[in-house]
Amino acid sequence: MKFNLITILGSTATGKTKLAVQLADCFNGEIISADSRQVYRGMNIGTGKDLSEYFIDGRQIPCHLIDIIDPTEEFNLFSFQQNFYKSFDEIKSKNKLPFLVGGTGLYLSSILQNYNLNKADFKIVEEEHSSQSDEELKSILKSLNPSLHNTTDLNDRGRIIKAIAVSKTEQDKTGVQNIDSLVIGINLSRDEIKKRITARLKKRLDEEGMIDEVKTLMDSGVSYDKMIFFGLEYKFIAQYLIGELNKNDMFQKLNSAIHSFAKRQMTWFRKIEKEGVVINWIEGPDFKKAKLIIEENF
Question: Is 118 within 8 Å of 172 (Cβ atoms)?
Fold first, then answer.
């Protein structure tokens, strides 16, 4: 078997979750979420967790990397990749098939294009070697990178530390390096995506209590700046709650921002295609078509 992972990607409001759950149920799989905001507890409506969709005939399809930290905590690309590999290994150990599902382009790329990430950044290395002389730093660099015969051009301390950080990154490879994913992309016309986004947003605001969700988060201690950082629903509703926007302006600006976000997602997917990631596009969340693509490759 060539592939050891199935990735379902697409822009927001294309029906990724429902399709992924159907496929995971069919192929004895579990889902790993690739969504930069669904990792946070209490951020449910705005992030579109749709937790009820993980049930089929009363059975729950397991999903990883949802509700794993509080919104006051930090989560980044490195955190995602580390958690992904841990979940991937756990699913494979049960002889089940991992499905990576989401729309956060950078998170998807870190797996599909095997980003080599670690924590050996400039600041950490600088702190680690702060008490050592430039000559000692050059010796460390030579030990890390024996092929570097000439360090005379590294006369600046900052450049030496940066070179050490790069060398450590090359040595400290993160997680599994043998990910080979079959990628299925959900394609919808731009008009259809716009229609779905607007209808979904109205429902979340008028029926599902998204404004109350944001208010609860802010009341529980999540700062206004953090809400702005989370973007989209959390940003514009926070602005509405503190009186910067009226309700109509909030809706219009948010609706427009989500449309722009969906467009950027598709731009990212086209970019990684050009970089060599093969995406099998299907029209809409077509279960039969996606099932056929998997059966042809497994």
Answer: yes
